[in-house]
UniProtKB/TrEMBL annotation:
Protein name according to UniProt: Carbon-monoxide dehydrogenase large subunit
The Aldehyde oxidase/xanthine dehydrogenase a/b hammerhead domain, residue ranges: 20-143
NCBIfam families (alphabetical): CODH_aero_grp5
Annotated source species: Nocardioides soli
Keyword field: Molybdenum, Oxidoreductase
GO MF annotation, one: anaerobic carbon-monoxide dehydrogenase activity
SMART domains: Ald_Xan_dh_C
Pfam families from the UniProt entry: Ald_Xan_dh_C (PF01315), MoCoBD_1 (PF02738), MoCoBD_2 (PF20256)
Length: 821
């Protein structure tokens, strides 16, 4: 029998093409129906965070040689009435009482620096950029609202018709948290802050469109995480039938969430111009545009009240937080809803109340960024656990352990509603076992001795631990098509897109296992609506669970057809057949066999007219007159198609631990050891899972120690370049990340798998805050880490403030306190 590939470290098949420079991205697409060159587009973006548009003068551009078109909002309706309407609110929610989305080109008002105002198409990008600079806009300046504090104060409004800048307020309750906290033996309050950050894929957004007037059909290439979503939006906005639009997603140089939003204004403006001009039009954003006009995330302010007993067991948890969602809400409330529900992690607080307000600010919109609200939730919960342990003088791991959901309590219903509108019910896990693994991996029990040894050398080291649960594999569905060619090769298509996750490898492993074919004979295509018209997209760690399950089911259907046809050809019972390396044979009789290519030939209506000698079908032979060419329960071709739709999400989990050193003089933060234990159910390819974890940890380090979006009070982004926006280099990421796996299979899908894409990044802010605080505990002052990310300069400032606070405290002479006289 062929060795099963599920669970094997199969080398990625994608890598050689990329390493040799043979990747093909949107900016590499160059197509035109004639001999014309491709036209290029540029966008005039608002330099102001908040202003009314009084007039737009494009007269200086119209006669510039090489400029083909200039569009403002007033030109959109000429394409179709829908183009002049606001962009879609992708995920409505009852709590989103004041949802707002922008227009493809600004109408009357701009609400953040970078908002699109005009669109120019020219012979090349240089000319288009020069033309954009000739457009004159008259503004009436309005007071910008920047940051959560300003939004809550509401002395100015982002949108005149949104009271208090509150787009949404949502509350969920399990039990009576305030009452439980009031009665608890111990109580604590925490105030925490997480600042804004953003996805920074190597490839920014880009779109190319070609309109074929002869057949009234649009072809669109775009760097997206949802090709089918873009297709639907473009069709509606341009007044086209869905069948008139093909969306092809070539190689995507990173997504991390920013490319799940759709459509971006340019994904509408480019095809609009292509149809109007009869030419192929291309837009590729530059890096500054990505900073100021794509999407950000993370920004939250949190207030936590917790009641607990002498063992640190949670009795009541009350969380209120404020979420900065920027100027518009195209992606609804997904991020704060995830924060509010995933905050619970592997714990059972008994009584839980959470309420959030999602606030408008005059800054870039918010859409999910790898982790999508979970890093903020984990930060809140794990900092609370650390505070409880410190208050009680207990080991931090011990306090977590007494609050764990136990293995025999699964499935465990947290009593809340998750992001997908389904119950927040965990499917499987073993958190106590995971805790023991992470403690062994990082050397938790041995660390106090190491910490003391380093202290004797004048070095400050600290250790942090953070636990999380991640909802993965959210619906509503994904589909797959598996086609066995007459060559015996297998072509697999699924509608989700790929941004480096290794789909061509892991999906081929699944198909090779199910069909019994060679791994190298399986080819996987993603993100092409011509091959798979209906899909949802790649986000929320859902690709393996959703498309993997759909591919498995589709391959299973194809296999059933293979065995049926082969059984007829070999005059054998289907139960007696096996497929090994692409050959169907009778078990125990390998000489009685037929290869998959021949079975594919037999699968068309001419299979009853098969010429044994030439191994081919002939039109002129006569089949069995006693049966129809195609049975009622059959169809031509050797293929399988299926969709997978889960009843609810699967819940992966993990624990991270880090040992850091903080320099006593410079406050520089150095990572000495990083360890991860992760549970994503059955592993398809451990090497790819570990790669995902490595990438996530690197991104998490960036979010914890370096990356932030720095706005001034006027709404100008001060660090909109890679010279100013700090990211970790390979020198800042540990050479070795210790990883161990725990496999608790999910009962919700046929493969028993859970997602892994965001595992590396979720607990980073929490685990670094804990480790840095532990290291600083050795100093004479000690300090609390309540705001992330944290840089050496900020740590240095915190130290100075702590020293000043100690110096200002009155004398602690016991006799003076007892007897002032």
């Amino acid at each position: 029998m062929t060795t099963k590939l599920m669970g094997q470290k199969v080398q990625r098949v994608e890598d050689q093409r990329f390493l040799r420079g043979h990747g093909r991205y949107v900016d590499d697409v160059a197509v035109d129906p004639g001999q014309h060159t491709v036209l290029h587009a540029a966008v005039l973006r608002s330099p102001h965070a908040h202003a009314r548009i009084l007039d737009i003068d494009v007269s200086d551009v119209l006669d510039v040689e090489g400029v083909h078109a200039v569009y403002t909002y007033d030109d959109l309706a000429s394409c179709s009435p829908q183009m002049a309407e606001p962009l879609p609110l992708l995920i409505p929610h009852p709590a989103l009482t004041h949802g707002r989305t922008q227009y493809a080109l600004a109408k009357d008002e701009v609400n953040y620096v970078g908002e699109a105002i005009a669109f120019v198409v020219a012979d090349d990008r240089y000319l288009a950029e020069d033309a954009v600079s000739r457009i004159r806009v008259d503004y009436e300046f309005l007071t910008p609202v920047v940051g959560i504090d300003a939004a809550r104060a509401a002395t100015s409004l982002v949108h005149e018709d949104v009271p208090g800048n509150v787009g949404a307020r949502m509350e969920q309750n399990v039990g009576d948290a305030p009452a439980a906290i009031a009665k608890a033996p111990h109580r604590l309050e925490l105030d925490l802050t997480v600042e804004r950050s953003a996805c920074m894929p190597m490839e920014g957004r880009g779109t190319v469109a070609r309109w074929d007037a002869d057949i009234n059909r649009l072809q669109l290439w775009t760097s997206t995480q949802s090709s089918t979503g873009v297709r639907a939006a473009v069709a509606v906005k341009m007044g086209l039938d869905l069948g008139q639009v093909d969306v092809i997603t070539p190689d995507v140089g990173g997504g991390f969430g920013v490319k799940i939003n759709h459509p971006w204004p340019e994904e509408l403006l480019v095809p609009m111009a292509a149809r109007a001009l009869g030419r192929t039009v291309k837009f590729t954003e530059d890096r500054r545009e990505h900073f100021i006009s794509s999407a950000h995330e993370r920004g939250q302010v949190q207030h936590i009240e917790v009641g607990f007993d002498d063992d640190g067991r949670l009795l009541g948890l009350d969380v209120e937080f404020w979420h900065d969602h920027g100027a518009y809400t195209p992606y609804g409330l997904i991020v704060p809803i995830i924060t509010s529900t995933q905050l619970l992690g592997p714990y059972k607080p008994q009584n839980y109340r959470v309420v959030f307000e999602s606030l408008y600010t005059n800054t870039v919109i918010v859409t999910p960024y790898r982790g999508a609200g979970r890093p903020q939730g984990c930060y809140a919960m794990e900092r609370t656990m650390d505070a409880i342990a410190q208050y009680l003088g207990k080991d931090r791991a011990e306090v977590r352990a007494v609050n764990f959901i136990q293995p025999d309590e699964f499935p465990f219903d947290q009593g809340m509603i998750f992001q997908d509108g389904r119950e927040l019910e965990y499917d499987s896990g073993d958190y106590p076992a995971m805790l023991e693994k992470i403690k062994d991996l990082v050397g938790w029990d041995e660390f106090p001795a190491f910490q003391q040894e380093m202290a004797e050398q004048g070095r400050q080291v600290g250790i942090g631990l953070a636990c999380y649960v991640e909802g993965t594999g959210v619906g509503p569905y994904e589909g797959a098509h598996v086609h066995i060619e007459t060559s015996g090769k297998v072509k697999v298509a699924t509608g989700l897109t790929t941004q480096g996750q290794g789909h061509a490898t892991v999906f081929a492993q699944l198909v090779a296992d199910e069909l019994g074919v060679k791994f190298e004979d399986v080819e996987v295509v993603t993100g092409d609506t011509r091959r798979m018209a209906y899909a949802v997209g790649t986000f929320a760690s859902r690709a393996a669970v959703m498309s993997g399950s759909a591919i498995h089911l589709a391959a299973k259907r194809a296999k059933e057809k293979v065995l049926k046809i082969a059984a007829e050809a070999l005059e054998a019972d289907e139960k007696d057949l096996e497929i090994v390396d692409g050959v169907v044979s009778v078990k125990g009789s390998p000489g009685t066999s037929i290869d998959l290519g021949t079975v594919s030939v037999l699968s068309n209506p001419l299979r009853y007219a098969f010429d044994e000698k030439s191994k081919a079908a002939t039109q002129f032979s006569i089949g069995d007159p006693g049966k129809p060419p195609v049975a009622e329960d059959d169809e031509p071709g050797l293929e399988g198609k299926d969709f997978y739709s889960p009843e609810r999400a699967t819940f992966a989990s993990g624990m991270h631990a880090v040992i850091v050193e903080t320099d006593p003089d410079t406050a520089e933060i150095t990572i000495l050891k990083y360890a991860v234990v992760h549970d994503c159910g059955h592993l398809i390819n451990p090497m790819i899972v570990e790669g995902q974890i490595h990438g996530g940890v690197a991104q998490g380090i960036g979010g914890a120690l370096y990356e932030r979006m720095a706005y001034d009070e006027s709404g100008q982004l001060l660090n909109a370049s890679f010279m100013d926006f700090l990211m970790p280099y390979v020198t800042e990421v540990p050479d070795g990340i210790d990883i161990d796996h725990l496999e608790t299979p999910s009962p919700l899908n046929p493969l028993g798998i859970k997602g892994a894409g965001e595992a590396g990044v979720i607990p980073s802010a929490a685990v670094f805050a804990a480790a840095i605080e532990d290291a600083e505990r050795l100093s004479s002052t000690g300090l609390a880490i309540t705001a992330m990310p944290i840089s050496p300069s900020e740590l240095f400032t915190l130290r100075q403030a702590a020293v000043e606070e100690v110096a200002q405290q009155p004398s602690r002479n016991p006799r003076t306190r007892e007897d002032p006289a």
